[in-house]
Design brief:
By secondary structure, this protein is mainly α. It is 81% helix and 0% strand. The longest helix is centred in the N-terminal third of the chain and has 38 residues.
């Protein structure tokens, strides 16, 4: 395999990864835009259904499981998941 073939394959792989990330970002953007549009129209934006499950886990002292679940359902990063659970924890105290 020559160097040109390797470079082309690497570019194809990078392109596939970038496209996947762009699709995810586009989906998240549409969700946020939808919520903002509903807020502008004065429609009640309810909290995510998973919050009750997260509060139960927090009350049981299972914050790590709550962070993991928040990340799974809401698509958050580790930091965002931790911050989300921390806010719910403060609200429940």
């Amino acid at each position: 395999m020559n160097i040109v073939t390797v470079i082309v394959l690497l570019l194809i792989i990078v392109g596939i990864v970038v496209m996947g990330n762009l699709k995810k970002i586009d989906k998240e953007h549409k969700q946020v835009k939808n919520k903002v549009d509903r807020i502008k129209r004065g429609v009640d934006v309810s909290e995510p259904e998973v919050n009750e499950e997260l509060r139960t886990l927090i009350q049981k002292g299972e914050e790590v499981k709550a962070v993991k679940r928040a990340r799974q359902v809401l698509g958050l990063s580790l930091l965002e998941g931790k911050q989300y659970v921390d806010v719910l924890n403060r609200e429940t105290e």
